[in-house]
Amino acid sequence: MESDLSASTVLATEGVVLARDGRAFAALPDLAIPRARSVAILGASGSGKTTALMALAGIRAPASGEIVVEDTALWGLSAAARDLFRGRRIGLVFQSFHLIDAVSVATNLALAARCAGLPPDSGRMNQLLETLQIAELRRRRADRISHGQAQRVAIARALFNKPAVVFADEPTSALDDASTARLLALLKDTAATEGAGLVIATHDRRVIDSVDETIELRSVP
Amino acid sequence: MSFVALAFAYLRRRWGQALLSIFVGALGIAAVATAVVGFDALPQAARRAWGGIDLVVGPKGSALDLVLCCALHVSDPRGLVPVKAAMGAVANPMIRVAAPIALGDNVDGWRIVGSTPAILDVYRAKIVSGQMWTDKLQAVLGASAARALNFKLGDSFVGAHGLAAGGESHDKFPYKVVGILAPTGSALDRLVLTDIETVRYVHVEQAKAEIAEKGSTDEENVADLPHGATAVVASYRVPTAAAFMPRQIDATDNLSAASPTLEIARLIGYVRPLTIAVTGLGLLLVVIAASGAAIGLLATMNARTRDLALLRALGASPGKVAMVAFAEASMIMAAALVLGSALTAGLLLIGRDVLADTTGLLLQPELGWDQIAMLLLGTISVTIVAAAFPALRAIHTQIEELLQS
């Protein structure tokens, strides 16, 4: 489905209301995020940040409103098309990274391509691994790398398919100040270099200074 | 890396758990296959046990005893019958062939049976090496007896008194092995055959020697031996003989007739509750084995739910996620099928030898196409059930749970 939103905007929303157990409970301010811009969705635990991220990533439908990634209205797609679109145009960084332990770092990245129905691009893989300074980990199994290395692999995987926008859910919740600063810099810089928008859902106020913009969810009475 | 290769990587990563699942699956498949084959092959083996014997003629007494002693060779004889009278009783056009048998000695617990060459015709047995006896103290061995005793043509042995090992040896009367029979699957395989005159000769001469040495003998019925036999076994020419011959023989004063088919059917009737219980236990074992295989596989597959949900989050379609689950489950069950088939073959081979040596029953296990299809369908069903749960869970997992975990 085509949208008339600006082509430079990678993520735009309009009138998005979130529901939990069939009841609307929060509303997302309208967004228009251009390439290489970072936005933090702030809110206390249970305020609906993750639900908002799920709606923006095409995983759980909002109660109402429109979400457009690049020029595609996400919830106008069929379920199968939305899955494929998510794999190709949306990057996800999970709080616990969720790498697949049984396989190597390179395979974790390659699987991101396979899931999206794309052939893994080894040149792209080398470039990302070098950018993130983890090229030597390429063949190492994912359960044999450190926490910090796993963060970088998770970011590399999120960016591997050249997404338009990357969503990160509470990426700093278990980190000290120094680690938080390093991770945010890495996420923001890499996403900016790749020309992707970055949306971080967090209750961590330390994120505020590291992003270009912050928004807060509004409660729906 | 393809999704099938990912499934293989999972197996390698948790090889211990995978091996356990394969082993449990293989045990289940082996239990089911052995039970299926055994339930089918055992009754057939039992029917073959008495070979071609349709009628046993012996002294008055229990017909079942007569069958157990002289057709299946698992119990002791009750006495002697005059050979002339017994052979006369079966001298009828309805009888295809008949042979007297004389029991009394053994070699290491394997029964020595005196008879005539017609005994081979009763059982439709063939000599596989050597020849039939032509003189006294020559022996032709059944296949199981020859294998267990490790006797070859030309070997010598001495018999011992009684039907169980440990009796007094007839040291002065060594036998020579002149022939070995092909396996028949009947009790004949466990017998050591010799000329009926040899049995009489050994006992009469042994008695004479004992009397000369001690003034008395332990040999029983020595006076009757020259004219007696334990029984006469016969094979009908026509099935209708079964309606006339036993009744005709039972009407005589000193002879009794027994049909192995009837007596064993009667015996099976007596022990039917036991066979039902054994069958029930077998079915229970099959259910437990199949459940064990499914549970083992399910435990392995459940460990994949998080990763499968991750693949969904990364854009994999439900079909691709299901493919990973089914590929891993299929690899486990394929390995279990191979191992289970090998275990089944091993169990049946061991069981066949043990059964042949202890009971003379020759198990000829064969898996029919219907049984193979049943086994494959069962294995595929277990695989589908075990893979479906984690695949469905992964497909329907709320990915936000994964994001927050």
Spell out the blueprint of helices and strands.
The complex is a heterodimer of chains A (221) and B (405).
Chain A: E1 9-20, E2 23-28, E3 32-34, E4 38-42, H1 49-56, E5 64-69, E6 72-73, H2 79-89, E7 90-93, H3 105-115, H4 122-131, H5 147-159, E8 165-169, H6 177-194, E9 197-202, E10 213-216, E11 218-219
Chain B: H1 3-13, H2 15-49, E1 55-58, H3 63-70, E2 81-82, H4 83-89, E3 95-107, E4 110-115, H5 118-123, E5 127-130, E6 138-141, H6 143-149, E7 156-161, E8 169-181, E9 192-195, H7 196-214, E10 228-229, E11 231-236, H8 241-250, E12 256-258, H9 260-270, H10 272-302, H11 305-313, H12 318-359, H13 369-396, H14 399-404
Helix pairs in contact in B: 1-12, 2-10, 2-12, 3-9, 10-13, 11-12, 11-13, 12-13
Descriptive notes:
Chain A has 221 residues and is of the alpha/beta class. Chain A has 6 helices and 11 strands. Chain B contains 14 helices and 12 strands. In chain B, strands 3-4-9-6-8-7 form a 6-stranded mixed beta barrel. A two-stranded antiparallel sheet of chain B has the order 2-10. In chain B, strand 7 and strand 8 form a beta hairpin. The mean pLDDT of chain B is 83. At the A-B interface, helix 1, helix 2 and helix 3 of A face helix 1, helix 11 and helix 14 of B.
